[in-house]
Amino acid sequence: MLTRLETAERDSALDKLRAFIEAGDYAPGDRLPPERELIVSLDMSRTTLRKALDALEREGAIWRHVGKGTFIAAQGAGRATSRLAELSQQVTPVHLMRARLSLEPAIAREAAINASDGAVTRLKLARDRAARADSWNDYEAQDDAFHRTVALATDNPLMLALFDQLNQVRRAVAWNSVVRVSDKPPSNHSSFAEHDRIVAAIEARDPATAHAAMREHLGSVSARLFGEY
Fold first, then answer.
1. In the chain, fewer beta carbons within 10 Å around the N or the C end?
2. d(C-alpha 220, C-alpha 32), whole Å
3. The domain containing residue 75 runs over which residues?
4. Can you tell me the distance from the alpha carbon of 79 to that of 60, in angstroms, rounded to the nearest whole number?
5. What tens digit of pLDDT does each residue of 176-205 get?
6. Same domain assignment for residues 79 and 95
């Protein structure tokens, strides 16, 4: 049992860790910095940090994958986080892409039916941020944000929750190293035009075309990664 002093220390560390996550605007599926960085950023010992992380994991706010890191859980995930951790170790990149090809075109279709004008504006901004990325890491983060913005545009909390669950597993799946021949995506990177077609279909309220455009986009990504669609 923790002493009163130890409890106060843990609670203080927990408050600092929560504030750090909130200030960093982390979304479900985002990976927290490594422990060695958090120790410096939060000015606490490794033992204290781990106690705070343990508490957040029990709450279902985060989940951990051995060898990959600590990830933000979907809001209200609770005990499901342990299942996500298990899945992330069982799912292959091919499994993941097949699941994305099944779910995300349907999400794009729903976005075309239900997106508000504001949602379309946010989607265009997310598309443009991805196109302006100045590194591959930045592009991957902005591309991720673009796909989540499509899910938000469905105005369907269940569709968004399904996307977040899939995306959390995607973040933790062990991908093989992708060889990059440039520092950032080239101006003719195929995903830019594919994003344009997705946005145009959603803005036009054309569900069938939005579904097809998202499937084409993910198929193109799959082909680049695995040589298959």
1. N
2. 29
3. 4-84
4. 6
5. 545 666 788 888 999 999 999 999 999 999
6. no
